[in-house]
Design goal:
It is built from 15 helices and 9 strands. It has helices spanning 14-24, 49-58, 72-83, 87-90, 101-115, 131-140, 157-164, 189-202, 220-223, 225-233, 265-282, 289-299, 301-331, 340-343, 355-363, and strands at residues 94-100, 122-127, 143-148, 150-151, 154-155, 172-176, 205-210, 238-243, 255-261. α8 (189-202) links the parallel β6 (172-176) and β7. The N and C termini lie far apart (61 Å). The protein binds pyridoxal-5'-phosphate. Residues 36, 101-103, 130, 176, 181, 209, 211, 243, 245, 256 line the site of pyridoxal-5'-phosphate.
């Protein structure tokens, strides 16, 4: 039986393929603009001081399986990080499960929603969005509908709200909590308020895709504001897919959390059981090392203080790089308006450079000639 033969190979993932081409490129002065990973001034991965402290604090560890839901100290600390002081946490209305980073968190909630008796057909994502959203949710069996969110270097609020108002009630919607991937254009707080009210009116189920909390502004709480506003001020059930890849520099450890703050403790119990059931069906139990490191950071006051500083270091460097790029383009009198580079936020900038030019920059351009040296 030749079951794979009548099918063509799937093209490589566009984001990972940039990294592959980067490694294959023999040029010396090259920068990988594909995957979002923080780099220091030498272009190298930065080992956060807080991570180093946490690793030392772990001492000898064993390599036993974790429970299906994950490492309990991590679950407790990460849930508190998001929901400390909320009524939902006090009244045990929260279900939390450790996940394979942000991607795994989205997968767990997607598969869980699909198993409900009232399983929704449609899920809403932004256009454009993180490249994996469409692939993941169609793979899970959703019909993916898109909501425009970008125009001329800014968040396209009017089009976003107009489409949101036509969304099918009961459907999940993916919200980029901050540092929108790939545009870098976030709603203002006032716009978030209107988005929240509209979501409530339409009876949608918001899923906050939170890959950059603390990494954007330098403050976790500042970046998590929309989540708490929806939950506490608008009284909406929320799900958070939290990644600790960027904000803790734990990319390859695949550490994250899916957590649902629901309207009753009985609903939270059902959600907890269903998410764990999906975890069992897909990976059985999550990996332990990143969870131990993250729990040590969050649960040890001195290490947590260091982590708060590390977030400021990383986010400030990103802002500085954006400013320098903008200033250099200005100095070189590059045609066009580049102010969106400093208006947009986070590690992504939607440059608006054409495909032909990108191909030229990657292929023929000799970077040594105008490398930014300061
Ligand atoms: N969601 C968004 C919007 C992202 O930008 C990313 C990573 O780039 C992720 C989720 C998933 O990241 P990870 O699985 O590495 O935590």
């Amino acid at each position: 039986l030749l079951i794979f033969q009548p099918t063509d190979p799937v093209p490589p993932d566009i984001q990972f393929d940039v990294t592959r081409r980067f490694h294959a490129d023999p040029k010396e002065n090259k920068i990988n603009l594909g995957q979002g990973t923080h780099r220091d001034e030498n272009g190298l991965p930065w080992m956060l001081p807080s991570i180093q402290m946490a690793k030392i604090s772990l001492g000898e560890i064993n390599h036993e399986y974790l429970p299906i839901a994950g490492f309990q100290p991590f679950l407790t600390e990460a849930t508190k990080l998001l929901f400390d002081g909320t009524e939902a946490l006090a009244k045990e209305r929260i279900a939390s499960c450790q996940s394979l980073s942000g991607t795994g968190a989205l997968m767990l909630i997607g598969l869980t929603l699909k198993k409900l008796n009232s399983a929704p057909d449609v899920i809403y994502i932004t256009d454009p969005s993180w490249v994996n959203h469409h692939l993941m949710f169609t793979t899970i069996g959703f019909k993916v509908e898109i909501i425009p969110c970008y125009k001329d270097g800014d968040f396209f609020f009017d089009a976003y709200i107009a489409t949101l108002k036509t969304a099918i009630s009961g459907s999940p919607i993916i919200l980029h909590t901050c540092a929108h991937n790939p545009t870098g254009c976030d709603p203002t707080r006032d716009q978030w308020k209107t988005i929240g009210t509209t979501i409530k009116e339409r009876g949608l189920f918001p899923i906050f895709d939170s890959a950059y909390l603390g990494f954007n502004s330098g403050s976790f709480d500042e970046d998590a504001w929309p989540i708490r506003y929806f939950l506490e001020k608008l009284d909406i059930e929320v799900t958070v897919c939290l990644s600790l890849a960027k904000n803790m520099g734990l990319y390859g450890e695949r550490i994250g959390l899916v957590t649902c703050a629901l309207s009753s403790s009985s609903a939270a119990k059902v959600a907890q059981s269903m998410i764990q059931n999906v975890q069992r069906a897909t990976i059985t139990a999550p990996p332990a090392y990143g969870a131990r490191v993250a729990a040590a950071i969050l649960g040890t006051p001195s290490i947590r203080e260091q982590w708060a500083e590390d977030l400021v270091v990383m986010s400030s460097r990103i802002r500085k790089m954006r400013k320098r790029l903008y200033e250099k383009l200005q100095r070189l009198q590059t045609p066009g308006d580049w102010s969106h580079i400093v208006r947009q936020t986070g590690m992504f900038a939607y440059l608006g450079v054409s495909k032909t030019r990108v191909k030229y920059l990657e292929g023929q351009y000799i970077p040594q000639t105008i490398v930014c040296t300061h």
